[in-house]
User: Which sequence fits this backbone?
């Protein structure tokens, strides 16, 4: 009989908690069935207690039929599930057996800056053959994860799940819980993927519009309408099919380390409440998750409890976590299905009363195409037809049409990020809008956004809050699926910091897909000054996505309190999806002194699309 | 290489205008590419020739060194060939300025040029090069090259290409006349087994105009040719 190492019932957990530091690896190896050629890789173990020994090392794996070397924690991909308890002081000794520097970052954890695990900001990194002792107090509960913050090690396996038991009785009732960790694996080295994208930004996109699509369009809509539809994309040299940079062409998507062929398996007894702790640990893949036949009650976002929302489907950005409770009332097998945002692949698992059962795997949904709104165009609702007669340049600014970007670029060389912000704040400053309702400020594109490094600037970005996202917008009408939106998220508890923001920082997510360059405000991390926050201040960050990619943005050290419309119940997130051509705003209480990373969590965007946030007593209150 | 000295001068000029520090971050590693854009056998009547058109570049996001070479082997020896060594600087979202040296080699007379051009992507996705050349004896030339890709499927791709050459004055030794010298139009249908490996078949039409055609007639060669192509496109 096959059992799963992820199935850790609550009762079992409570029993096991006595053995602090003990290793609880139950069950067989999920990777050891299905094919004889599969690797002799350990299944992720469950570790709990107050002290942890973690070893980052090389590990032979075979996810695709070819042998590769992964970088793994304690010999498994994903690494062990760490079970902590809120309020406890824990220590973790992390050994680095790689030939390169390594690190572990505890994603979403509120902890001292020196324990955050970002080389160059929190500490110097862990040298090969050396170790680092992490020690901190666990101040929160819920579902989180951890990963390397060095190089591209996340892509090759250095990630794992964190589950924190609350100090007080859990607000969520459930009979058993499972970690469902989604990730993407490639047999290509990550450096090779990155360099390939630099040579050809659309290398992995095999869903590009063809002559056949054009012919279909002409047949359905007529020549002039088809021409008009394509006009703006053609003039802007943008592809409507540019949904994901790296796709199923090279990726094998994993659920708890299982390939789609293997599938993960979780058991339940009829009538039980099963809590699924979804974690997106992919390097580059945003997933859309559903369980055909089961309603999912989303009870937590990014580890933090929310007012329960019942949905059929949700999008999970890279680094986000969602906890969903399902309650199967019959003895059936259900497919836990996670398809990539561009529908180039999926990973899956089965929830069933018996580990031998397999649920039917649904077909992937249609491949989405970007719409004009994803370019930050002003428009009413979803009416695409209204766009047809509109000239390509109206409401849109695009540097490629002339060479003016060049002169801007040359002028702006000496300006730093901070200078730009000063400049912006010197504009007639009205008081920021009250907490919870989002920004009312004008969207302004700073001069550094003009140049070869930027291919688009949203002129009229829509609010991304109630947008389910590219490819999900019609799922209600088309499939009758209720899709989770950010506007559904309400903190289960009352907002702790009720102050209105004292100031606003507007940051633009910028890039050039063709050149594969990514930046914020047109300035890559290497050339950017840190953002200065004053300790104790409450501020609003407005992110404007001046690109057609969906960017999950993660701020370390402090919460990103997403303004979803109810000032009294602002949900706390650590990673926020910014929809293409859209804006979104959240509040930050700068209550943690230190140097914190702030970046896009798509691994190959991160080197450029990153900032250091410096929170200090002096701060910057310009 | 009379004008060769201009290359470093211009390179320095452009480099000094660079608004960005020379960052050594992971975001901008040194990347290189070797691309056999056309590597083909052409057939005109009973005549065959091997033709290459190869690009190589190395550099970072903003600054690259480009080497472009093309030419032809026929009757067991190298016929016309040319090589360009260019410094390339990203100046706009879809455009690079490229400047450097070009050498033309043939069995009669070799020519060297200073090259200054734009390379990039026009609206409607035309990969385009527009290069101005200044020769060592004061001659001038302009080359326009543009290519489009039409996807029948994700792997079957038709690629029309057009090259136009204009020269400032007659050059009897190389057989080029002033004004519009020649036009070359190619059509290649390739199948991308992978993005990096694609065999193709195609046709190429070449026509000489004006004084260039005159020179051609004088030497008894065709002014208008149509050739069949079979080749391989691959890159690393």
Assistant:
């Amino acid at each position: 009989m096959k059992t799963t190492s992820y199935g850790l019932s609550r009762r079992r957990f409570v029993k096991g908690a006595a053995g602090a530091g003990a290793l609880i690896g139950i069950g067989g190896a999920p990777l050891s069935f299905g094919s004889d050629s599969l690797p002799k890789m350990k299944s992720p173990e469950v570790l709990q207690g107050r002290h942890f020994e973690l070893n980052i090392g090389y590990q032979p794996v075979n996810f695709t039929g070819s042998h590769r070397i992964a970088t793994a924690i304690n010999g498994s991909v994903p690494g062990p599930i760490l079970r902590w308890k809120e309020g406890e002081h824990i220590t973790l000794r992390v050994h680095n057996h790689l030939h390169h520097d390594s690190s572990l970052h505890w994603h979403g954890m509120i902890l001292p800056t020196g324990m955050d695990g970002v080389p160059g900001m929190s500490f110097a990194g862990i040298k090969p053959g050396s170790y680092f002792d992490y020690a901190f107090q666990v101040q929160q509960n819920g579902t989180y994860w951890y990963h390397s913050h060095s190089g591209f090690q996340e892509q090759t396996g250095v990630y794992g799940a964190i589950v924190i038991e609350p100090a007080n009785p859990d607000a969520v009732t459930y009979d058993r819980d499972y970690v469902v960790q989604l990730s993407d694996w490639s047999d290509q080295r990550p450096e090779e993927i990155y360099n390939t994208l630099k040579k050809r930004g659309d290398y992995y996109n095999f869903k590009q519009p063809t002559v056949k699509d054009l012919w279909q369009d002409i047949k359905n809509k007529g020549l002039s309408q088809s021409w008009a539809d394509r006009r703006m994309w053609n003039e802007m040299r943008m592809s409507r099919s540019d949904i994901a940079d790296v796709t199923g062409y090279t990726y094998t998507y994993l659920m708890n380390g299982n390939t789609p062929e293997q599938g993960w398996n979780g058991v339940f007894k009829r009538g039980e409440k099963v809590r699924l702790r979804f974690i997106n640990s992919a390097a580059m893949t945003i997933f859309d998750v559903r369980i055909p036949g089961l309603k999912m009650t989303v009870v937590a976002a990014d580890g933090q409890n929310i007012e329960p929302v019942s949905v059929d489907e949700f999008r999970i950005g890279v680094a986000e976590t969602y906890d969903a409770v399902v309650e199967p009332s019959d003895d059936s097998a259900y497919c836990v299905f996670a398809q990539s945002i561009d529908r180039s692949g999926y990973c899956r698992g089965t929830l069933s009363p018996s580990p031998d059962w397999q649920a039917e795997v649904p077909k992937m949904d249609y491949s989405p195409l970007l719409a004009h709104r994803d370019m930050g165009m002003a428009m009413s609702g979803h009416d695409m037809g209204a766009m047809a007669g509109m000239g390509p340049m109206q409401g849109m600014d695009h540097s490629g049409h002339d060479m003016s970007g060049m002169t801007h670029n040359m002028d702006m060389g000496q300006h730093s990020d901070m200078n730009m912000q000063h400049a912006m704040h010197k504009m007639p400053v009205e008081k920021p809008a009250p907490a919870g309702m989002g920004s009312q400020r004008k969207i302004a594109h700073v001069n550094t956004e003009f140049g070869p490094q930027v291919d688009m600037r949203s002129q009229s970005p829509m609010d991304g809050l109630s947008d389910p996202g590219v490819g999900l917008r019609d799922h209600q009408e088309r499939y009758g699926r209720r899709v989770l939106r950010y506007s559904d998220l309400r903190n289960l508890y009352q907002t702790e910091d009720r102050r209105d923001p004292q100031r606003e920082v507007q940051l633009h997510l910028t890039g050039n897909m063709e050149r594969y360059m990514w930046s914020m405000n047109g300035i890559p991390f290497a050339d950017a000054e840190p953002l200065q926050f004053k300790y104790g201040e409450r501020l609003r960050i407005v992110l404007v996505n001046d690109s057609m990619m969906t960017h999950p943005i993660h701020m370390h050290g402090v919460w990103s309190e997403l303004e979803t419309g109810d000032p009294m119940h602002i949900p706390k997130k650590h990673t926020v999806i910014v929809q293409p051509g859209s804006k979104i705003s959240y509040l930050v209480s700068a209550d943690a002194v230190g140097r914190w990373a702030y970046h896009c969590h798509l691994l190959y965007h991160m080197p450029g699309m990153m900032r250091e946030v410096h929170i200090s007593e002096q701060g910057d209150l310009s | 290489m009379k004008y060769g000295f201009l290359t470093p001068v211009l390179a320095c000029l452009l480099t000094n205008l660079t608004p960005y520090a020379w960052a050594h971050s992971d975001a901008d590693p040194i990347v290189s590419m070797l691309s056999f854009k056309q590597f083909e056998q052409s057939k005109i009547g009973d005549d065959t020739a091997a033709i290459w058109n190869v690009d190589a570049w190395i550099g970072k996001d903003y600054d690259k060194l480009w080497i472009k070479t093309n030419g032809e082997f026929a009757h067991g020896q190298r016929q016309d060939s040319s090589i360009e060594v260019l410094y390339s600087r990203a100046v706009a979202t879809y455009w690079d300025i490229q400047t450097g040296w070009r050498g033309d080699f043939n069995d009669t007379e070799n020519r060297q040029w200073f090259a200054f051009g734009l390379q990039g992507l026009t609206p409607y996705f035309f990969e385009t090069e527009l290069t101005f050349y200044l020769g060592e004896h004061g001659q001038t030339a302009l080359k326009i090259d543009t290519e489009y890709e039409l996807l029948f499927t994700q792997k079957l791709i038709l690629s029309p290409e057009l090259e136009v050459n204009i020269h400032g004055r007659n050059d009897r030794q190389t057989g080029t006349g002033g004004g519009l010298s020649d036009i070359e139009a190619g059509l290649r249908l390739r199948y991308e087994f992978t993005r990096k490996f694609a065999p193709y078949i195609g046709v190429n039409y070449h026509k000489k105009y004006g004084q260039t055609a005159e020179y051609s007639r004088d030497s008894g060669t065709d002014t208008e040719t149509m050739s069949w192509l079979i080749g391989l496109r691959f890159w690393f």
Observations:
- Residues 223-236 of chain A form the longest helix (14 residues).
- The radius of gyration of chain A is 24 Å.
